[in-house]
Design brief:
mainly alpha; 16 helices; two-stranded antiparallel ribbon; two-stranded antiparallel sheet
Amino acid sequence: MAQVIGQVQQSSFIPKKWQIINLVALLIFIIFPFVAGTFQTNLMAKLLLYGVLGVSLDLVWGFTGILSFAHGVFFTLGGYAMAYYLKLNLSATANNYGGSIPDFMVWNGLKELPWFIAPLQSFPVAVIAIVAIPAGFAYAIGSFIFRSKVSGVYITVITLAIASALTTFFVSQQAYTGGTNGITDVSKLILFGMTVPPIGIYYIILAFATLTIAGSWWLTKSNFGLILRSIKENEQRISYLGYDVANFKIFIWTLSAAIAGICGGLFVPLNNFISPVYLGVAFGTQIVIWVAVGGRGTLFGPVIAAILLGQLQNSVDRITQDWQLIVGIILMVVVLFLPDGLMSLLPKKLLASGSNKLDKT
């Protein structure tokens, strides 16, 4: 793993054109709550989270060539960690049964809080769990997959199986997970003794999105990013050069899972619930669609696609419930006519200005 860390260097600076574009975009997002209503602000916060979730998949699929349908799993694991914290800190009077044990546990006959959930009453523990649980799970399965020389479509099949199996498991463990309903009616997020209002959660998500995209840009423009792209193009050749390909895959897989877990952790105080539906293949497929439509290996593409498709769904929902059909048609059009995604519509000069100098060597 030291070999992996050692390659995170020689990162190029963001070109001036991209700096200006990014600053303008950030300014728009900063003032957005003041010109949009509460509903649109909350919707944009959710779509920003979805966009960052797409970025986490882009790191492993767009840059490393690993197609995964399990990023909804990492998202949900982080979400449950936060949901347990908020549910356990709900006041006794707010609980249906007036006790300290969550209502769904009481319904299912539990008399006391399970030992493995009790530590999540602490905010620091919950914050650590949001990152550590999905990252630890990803590291465990990633070590098995990548050190076993599993590659190609077989990895995709394994991630599909993981998503399906965990969905069934979470639904069956109703006493601990809330079953199909998940964990609902959680408390408000409180930081430094103050309740965080919806606009505060929006800006927390915006800050997280900004840091994640900037950090991902820096990482992918370093020698490390060049090695990831080399693994995607010709894994065998990069291994001949003395690089431990498995270590690089495990590292980026685990990092992307940690990012997805944080997305899930921030999703809960925004939407006040989490459920096994986000574990399923359907949600995992949505993440893949955001990356495919936006453009693999672009970082910004998944964010743009998540926002555009989310706003489209919100508009179409008012007319028809068949919004998934429309998204499917859009995906088909993109695959046929824009195989590189929406980002390929940008002028080539602009895209070239954002390319890494190392790519030209």
